[in-house]
Amino acid sequence: MTATTAQSLTVALHDSFTPGLPGGKYCLTINQELRDRENNLVDSGKYFLPLKQEFTVFAPRFSVDGTLVHAVNPPPGTQGGYDDLLPHVTLSHPQLPWERNIGDGVTGPWVALLLFRADEILDDPDARGLTTPRTAKELITTSADVATPDIKDTSLADAAEPCRTIEVAADTFAKLAPRAADLPFLAHCRKVTQPRTARGEELKPGYFGVVLAHRLPREPGPWVAHLVSLEGHGKHLAGLGSARRIRLASLWSWSFRAVKTDAARQFPALVRGLAADQQRLTLRLPAKASGNTGVDTRLKQGYVPVPTRVRSGEHTFAWYRGPGGPVVAQPPPALDPDGTAVTSDHALSYLPDTGMFDLSYAAAWALGRSAAMADADYVAGLLRWRHRSRHHIARHLVGQAPQIWRDELNQLLAQDLGTTLDASAAPAEASLSPAPAGLAEIAAHWESTRDSGELGADLAGIGRDEPVLGDWLSRLCLLEPVPFHYLVPDARMLPPESLRFFHIDPDWIGALVSGALSLGSCLSTDVVANTAASRGKFPAPVAGFLIRSALVSGWPDLVLTAVAKDTGKSFHEVRPLRHDRLAPDVLLCLYDEVPDELCVDEPKQGLNFGVDPGNTLRLRSLDKETCGTPLKGKTASIADCFRPNAATGVLDVGGTGGTSLQKTLDTALGKTLSAAKLAVQLVNSPQRFVFHAGGTK
User: Fold this and answer.
1) pLDDT range class, residue 99, cuts 50, 70, 90
2) Residues 506-561: pLDDT tens digits?
């Protein structure tokens, strides 16, 4: 799961990338004749023999080297809800789909990506990607009941060239094979000008050939995709005649498994479900009027009633709110103003209007102290720092008031130091003698300098010498050691499939840090040191959100981007201080400013192709400046673009009828689509949902 800004990426789609000469054998013949300016033959004598030069344009024919296959989708061996996905193969050799001719007057790419489920391939009934090895000669050898490629022996560069083959029953091939009118739309060329890595396919700079399937894997179970050669099969696209099956050369294949997914568990439905109740997007209990104004106000502020036992032993209820609340927390009554708290009771708040206690800050203080005691490294670092801070404060006093100390020492010597010491050893009298005037002056000087910025800066410098101390307190300020039930004290505040925003209470975190710094604190100088430490440069989150949803576990690469408004209409991204999965389905994010919008983006999967749920397509602009941008509110139904119906998942892409995919989109867009323009409409781009102050969009 990431919170980074997406790189820019430029992708251009072209209808084709045809080579100057298709692969095959060629003979170049040169004849010499003498003609005049009017192109009349001057002399018909055969003085020069024709010059002939035979050559071969090599191109893949019966197999494809694995280095030429850049990526396939769905990834091999995976399983998922692929109901609306058109599998495709990306070739690093961009001209490959057009390097040969099909023959029999059929134009278009000579390869096709066929999709089969179990029991549709005679050689591979379990759809595991199995093929039958044959030689090129065996592939084209004709048989009474098998339709084979119409390729002449003389055109074979090597009759013994090995190839992988499959055989498909005639009725199955008739249902699944593309028609001649479909082929030009099932391959295009992609040009990438900026690199970007996305899960599923790495988009590298350069040109690539892309071949699309025309079938959606609608049925759950195993599926296998074969990139097959159609060379010599031109006439078979219209029917196999008396043949009972057809033999095809499989250039590349892979298998995957489709599983039935509940529409409610898919990305769009899950994100929309987070905002189903837009009155419940803050971290608090469901608001139900109780008739008690004080109680209702506390509940709206994010408090929950919790059982407690007072010092007298009675069991009662108290209010508690964690570090995050639905509203900006108001400063509490002065809690431990001088930092001398030694127990959590010093952070208790009593509410006289209801006769109840507020345990929020007391719980935070106790938690901070408990978390500190549980970490031996932190305790050791804190005690080292405390020892050094005491010495530093003592040196500070001596350096700031040396004359006071000298005057006090001289006074003691003048009064006979030995007598004074003997007197101090005598039994104490009932009444204590007043402190010497010099000590009173030292105490006054200490009170006047204890909160000085210079002393605090010096003490903070000592804290930097203890990196364990600083790192641990930084993590504490980001609530890392805080148990989940302190963050969400009632499960009803964060039910399944919910998103909750909150403001951070800085005083709650202050109490947490105060408790962690209370270990070993027993002198007034320790109070000053603790105050200086708590004012260190630690992360200061002010807002955040929690998500509890299958989105967190099902989409590990979920992209979350928070933005805040600048002056005018501009925005800037708010970087997260903490972005952490607390459980497989729970995500916490903290920010140092309040975001105005939260963008939830479906993880980018490279360039996928397919249709939208419900057999629809979101139409996209084909204009040069805005190409690929969704046209707001414009969709097209493609429910009638399947043959014979949507249950088969086989698309009628370029048929001559008005219900073909091309004709349907031509009508919807008012433009004639080519292969590249159709691919733009079929791009399955990641979806984005925006949560903002006024709701979602």
Assistant:
1) very high
2) 999 989 998 998 888 877 777 777 777 776 678 889 999 999 998 898 888 788 99
What's the half-sphere exposure (Cβ side, CA atoms, 13 Å) at 619? 22
For residue 157, CA distances in Å to 24, 56, 228, 398, 615 come to 9, 9, 19, 99, 46
pTM score over 0.70:
no
DSSP 320: E
Alpha carbon separation from 493 to 284, 488, 546, 551, 584 (Å, rounded): 5, 7, 10, 18, 18
Percent pLDDT > 70 in the chain is 83
Residue with tokens 């350096």: 399
Q: Which domain holds residue 52?
A: 24-57
Tokens of 490: 């009632």
- 109 within domain boundaries: yes
Please state the rounded mean pLDDT for residues 123-149.
91
pLDDT (0 to 100) of residue 1: 40
Q: Does residue 165 contact residue 247 with C-beta atoms inside 8 Å?
A: yes
Per the structure, how many domains does the chain have? 3
41 & 75 share domain: no
39 and 121 in a single domain? The answer is no
Centre a 10 Å sphere on the Cβ of residue 446 and count the other Cβ atoms it contains. Answer: 17
Decide if 362 contacts 510 (C-beta within 8 A): no
Please indicate, yes or no, whether residues 43 and 171 belong to a single structural domain of this protein.
no
